[in-house]
Amino acid sequence: MLLKIDGLLSTADVARIREALTGATFVDGRVTAGDAVRNVKNNLQATGQEKLLDESRQIVAVALLKNELFTQRILPRRVLPAMFNRYESGMNYGGHVDNAIMGGGDPMRADVSVTVFLTDPADYDGGELVIDTDGEARKVKLGIGGAVIYDATTIHRVEPVTRGSRFAAIVWAQSFVRDDSKREMLQELSEAARWARTASPGSHEAMKISKVRANLMRMWAEL
Question: What is the widest separation between alpha-carbon atoms in the chain?
Answer without folding.
Answer: 60
